[in-house]
Write a structure and sequence with these properties.
mainly alpha, 5 strands
Amino acid sequence: MSDAEVAKLVGRFAAMRSLAAHAVKENPNDARAVYGAAMAYRISGDYPSALAQFEQVCRLDPGQTHFRFELGVTQEYMGEFEAAARNYADALKIEGLNFRARHALVQLQKQSVLQNDIPELERQFALPDPDGWRTLHVGHALAKTYEDFGDLPRSFHWLDRAKQRRRQLHPYRPKDDAALADAALAVQPSQKPGCPDQDPIFITGLPRSGTTLADRILSSHPQVTSAGEIGNFVSLLKLMSGSKTPATLDADMLAKVGNVDPAKLGRAYIDSTRPLTGAAPRFVDKAPSNFYLAPVILSALPNARIIVMRRHPLDSVLSNYKQIFPFDDRYFDYVYALAATAEKFVVFDRVIQRWRDRLPPDRFMVLQYEDLVAAPELRIRALLEFCGLPWDERTLAFHENAAGVSTPSARQVRQPMSNAAVGRFAKYGALLDPARQVLERAGIDLG
């Protein structure tokens, strides 16, 4: 590792935005340049600028359905759901086989027996699909359609079929996850002093467990902004550890954590977030997989706070299983099988229970989603106290926060808190038995 490599990683978001601004200025009528700028803005967290450039690229090349789909995605991030639906529908008028747009449209619109796309979805599902992405998206659209009908067995049938090809290509390897957990639990961070800044609040947990909700609550506080779902900490840790393996988060990197100077890591991490967080006194980093790194985070940033969101095991499994993650990353292979998703929860729960015993309770907390929903003000007051923040009523009105949200929860967190997602697993009954059996064998409380 060289200082130049660290500096490049630290400055990557600022560099992205600078390059995007330059591309737009120099080539305002070049669709490829404007599209590249739009993606750079979105990746670096500047959603308003991304939206403006996606609108521009669609004016430059209105027939390119990929551009129109990405405009729709960005509109969803910004809470413009009706506009997003129009762009997905326009993309499908031009290119009926744009399976991402078709799935996105079904996700946004309630399907009914009288109004649905089942015949076309079934036709497209039968088309050749070597890499499994079309069948994944189209099958999920069929599953959502039957879920809207209330036909849960048929919905689960299509979920299983949707994931079949991806499951064959990328089978989940529970031993790999168990080995990663073992390596995380065995980490011995350096005992040198870390960076004293108290700016970051890390929100972690499995996806679809309330992490975005917690992020929106905290970033509605006037002293807090959200950096979004960034991987800066683990990327810097990988680089500074000297690990050369392909995966960013793996046992090899964790075994080399003792080589890392905690103060240098903490300072580089804080500096890397500045293009996203500006001068805000505190900021939220919502990278779910950071739960593996809790002791390393507190070694590098001893005054940081770590919040782990935990949801009822079966609701957590169900919500993950129904999700398509847009990254071709082996970390998410578990979602291609129901039992594998339960195995992932077992690993997660094992790790966070150990951290509960080992880490200081004024720096590490587990927040149960159901408790937050049942008593919002009580739990939010406790959350703010844990973070060292004064009470502010705006945290209760998190749904009025206008900032962009780049997660599948973009729609839910723009609505007032409700218990609609609590206990959703119950109506699935025996359909969840493969997951229930895994959890029960592991001794996970399902009460």
